[in-house]
Amino acid sequence: MALKICSIASGSSGNCIYVGTDNVNLLVDSGISKKKVEIGLNAIGVDPHTIDGILITHEHSDHIKGIGVYARKYKMPIYATKKTWDATLNYSSLGKIPEGLHVEIFPNEDFMIKDMTIHPFNSFHDAIDPVCYTFKSEDKKISVATDLGCYDEYIIDNLNGSNVLFIEANHDVKLLEVGKYPYFLKKRIMSDVGHLSNETSGELISTLYNETLSHVILGHLSLENNFPELAYESVKTVLANCSHVDCDKFNLSVASRSSHSELVVV
Ligand SMILES: [Zn+2]
Ligand SMILES: [Zn+2]
Question: Which residue ranges make up each domain of the chain?
């Protein structure tokens, strides 16, 4: 069964990623308007009524702000850890969410939605209980890892063996350093519970590189401290300098901030 992924929107202003097979349609986060989600899904031939669930990574507004409107219209299950769900419900502009939609998940415990096996695992980020997800169907694996300030063996173990890596390349360190963000925010972004820089993202990808990897999609770019060409070139430079990485063996792309990107099928 082919696995599919499409970034509906990705960046510090709002995130929503579609992952599916021919039998199951899922969204990771919904930090954009319902209308934008519908436009993105329709563009890749997925009826928004067929979404089987939304998986929340963490309660930051760029990941949850569209969930209330979407849930009221489509009433699909929403998967989140208990702490993340409680924090999500405290987000003031979410509005009322219909009762009974929340499904509790636990980091490091696989669960299934139809023919998809989903594995949530902890990430290093300044939210209450942040997770990243991997998705498996038969022998294919897609990983979605954004909003992590650093990585270790545990993160590497969880992401290893992916056919598609959707991975954060949030900022260029020099642009961030000289940019207009206040000092505390610069410090937060660069911390171990902030976001991955382009260089660190490249290093993580090089660590994960193996022959099964066919697509790397860079996402969650900062509007102020990065731009698509810079993220692409920075990551490519890191990878090109690694003797064990063959850059011709996989496709490297950057997810669009405001609209849907191409549908990747493996
Ligand atoms: Zn975040
Ligand atoms: Zn975020």
Answer: 4-265
Whether residue 261 is predicted with pLDDT greater than 80 in this model: the reply is yes
Q: What is the mean pLDDT of residues 142-155?
A: 98
Four-way CATH pick for 4-265: 3.10.580.10, 3.50.50.60, 1.10.510.10, 3.60.15.10: 3.60.15.10
Both tokens of residue 189? 């972004």
Residues 11-67 pLDDT 10s = 989 999 999 999 999 999 999 999 999 999 999 999 999 999 999 999 999 999 999
**Residues 191, 126: Cα–Cα separation, whole Å:** 9
Asked if the model's pLDDT at residue 133 lies above 90, the reply is yes
How far is the centre of ligand 2, averaged over its atoms, from the C-alpha of 62 (Å)?
Answer: 5
**Measured in angstroms, how far is the CA atom of residue 85 from the centroid of ligand 2?**
16
Report the mean per-residue pLDDT for the chain: 97
Which one of the ligands is nearest to 126 CA? Answer: 1
Q: How far is the CA of 113 from the centre of ligand 1 (A)?
A: 25
Dihedral pair phi/psi, residue 79, rounded to 5°: -95, 125
Contact between 101 and 94 (Cβ < 8 Å):
no
Distance (angstroms) between ligand 1 centre and the Cα of 56 equals 11
pLDDT digits (tens, 9 = 90+) for 226-254: 999 999 999 999 999 999 999 999 999 99
Q: How far, in Å, is the centroid of ligand 2 from the Cα of 173?
A: 17
Q: How far is the CA of 123 from the centre of ligand 2 (A)?
A: 12
Name the closest ligand to CA 10: 2
**pLDDT (0 to 100) of residue 93:** 84
